[in-house]
Amino acid sequence: MLLTFLLVLAPFPVFAQDVDHGGHAVHDRAINYQVLFDQLEMQFVHGEPGSRWDAKSWVGGDINRLWIRSEGDAVDGVLDTAEAQVLYGRAFSRWWDVVAGVRHDPRPSPAHTWLAIGVQGLAPQFLDVQATAFIGPSGHTAARVEVEHDLLLTQRLTLQSLVELSFSGKDDPDRGVGPGLSTGEVGFRVRYQIKREFAPYGGVVWHKKVFGTGDYAREGGGDPGGWHLVAGLRTWF
Fold it and tell me: What is the distance between the alpha carbons of residues 113 and 125, in angstroms, rounded to a whole number?
């Protein structure tokens, strides 16, 4: 009887069941990379010319990657802020990575080097989220939260909105940074995609040093910031 049953089933194919791999159906072992200049722009702050850059790069596979971040700005040809981060990132879910590494700030003076740890990923509604905490010398701590969203207006036209908040754990008069919320930014940039890797843009940005940090800027004869016009280029390879 058993032999007869097996002979009847033999002509029929057997289908394998789908297996859930936790969001990663296949892990490619190939090493890939991307260099993204999200912001390469000229700014006009209260009639004064300025510039800004914001770049993110990575190299690695699906799970483990080396991340390099760099950003800064200059007003009237004078470098105001500059920083670079080198981070190891590891995916812990389909859309999220945990990152850890170091951050170095050559500006404002005196230079600071920080330990960095945070998360980055894609939240619901396609919100690109980046949240990082920093531990620096002499008990200094800081944190930054950045939320970015791209809204496709046409096949080539995209509205990018951005909110960024920076916090300081303690007063740092040598660098002109007050405790609590130190800087805030809200930006709207409309870019036109000439091709996928090349998209000029223009927009308006509110970027300001607030509370104690704003007081330090005014006491030093500087501009704490406000609304300004921007024009630049987003490119990647």
Answer: 35
